[in-house]
Amino acid sequence: MIAEAVAAVTLSRGPVAESVTRRSAVISFRTSAPDHDFVLLRNGARIDAGRGLGHAAKLTRLEPGKHYAYTIEGESGALATGTFRAAPAGPSSFTFAVVGDFGSGTSNETAVASLIGSWRPDFVLTVGDNAYPQGSKELLDRDVFRPYAAVMRESAWFPALGNHDVKADDGRPELEAFHSLGKERWYRFTWGNAAVVVLDSDTSVAPGSPQLRFARRALRRRSCFRFAAWHHPPWEPRGRPLSPGLRRNIVPLVQKDGVHIVFLGHLHAYARSRPHRGVVYVAVGTGGASLDFDARKLTIPSARIVQGQFGALRVDVTGRTARFRYETVDGRVRDRFRLTCS
Q: Which of 23, 101, 235, 238 counts the highest number of beta carbons within 10 A?
């Protein structure tokens, strides 16, 4: 019997839950060959994810805070399963992870991804440099989607861009790979009683710029916990500016509008500042890329610094209390602090 060999369609990327809100989410993935795929929920809903290689299904009418299990179905049958949680409304209990400078495709990155996966976070917030040496199409699978495949199947993904991410065509490959909220380079999302504003510190925040106008609106909106995230530390070494205008135009906004924590990357170390006019700056650039010992040069004075260790920041929110714990891949908790919102 002569049989024609036909390669089975598999997933080459994903699935991952993105742009998750209280009522909606996007499930995105990529197949090894053109296919017409759907996302099936346990309640019987069947959402078209489109034809071709790249797929995205928009889920609507979700119940806030509910966990959803789904199946990716292709023309030849089930391809994968995943879960995610719709963003809860109001005070709630949830966990999220913060990681940056991770996209190296090394065993160190895999170890950090495994650590984060063990926490089973509701979402992962990245603080940039998701891919090294640049966020090109060829490197995204090696640097992001493969190391974090297991995490992405259980946790929502909210990325920020770093300077290495935008080296490839001004970041377009990553913007096309992810489906972030709003303008993608900068956006705002809420989870329970926490609001997070994500900015792109490689894009202008000069007076009159679109990003500064967005930041003024987004940071002003009230929530119990108020977080912001971008890549570059605002305190820069003399003569070597990292992100022009960041300290001059954004730092005053986060102070005026009562942001509690700013999550940063770029430093290949962990550093937590003392409150500066009410704002705590936490750099988590220890996700897998080579570690540096430059934290004292690039962050504000009197910081708690952990160098030479790979790890991530875990945040547990329960009601009006948030507990922060920086854990390294050897299982040690090397920094912890607590915040209560009024």
A: 101
End-to-end CA distance of the chain: 74
Which CATH code fits 93-340?
3.60.21.10
* CATH class, range 11-85: mainly beta
Q: What is the pLDDT of residues 27-62, one digit of tens each?
A: 999 999 999 999 999 888 999 999 999 999 999 999
Sketch the domain layout of the chain as residue ranges: 11-85, 93-340
- Angle at CA of residue 116, ends 110 and 119, nearest 5°: 145
CA 86 from centre of chain = 16
Using CA of residue 91, residue 114, residue 282, residue 284, what is the dihedral sign? negative
Phi-psi region of 319 (alpha: psi -120 to 50; beta: other; left: phi over 0): left
Per-residue pLDDT reduced to its tens digit, 261-312: 999 999 899 999 988 778 999 999 999 999 988 777 766 767 888 989 999 9
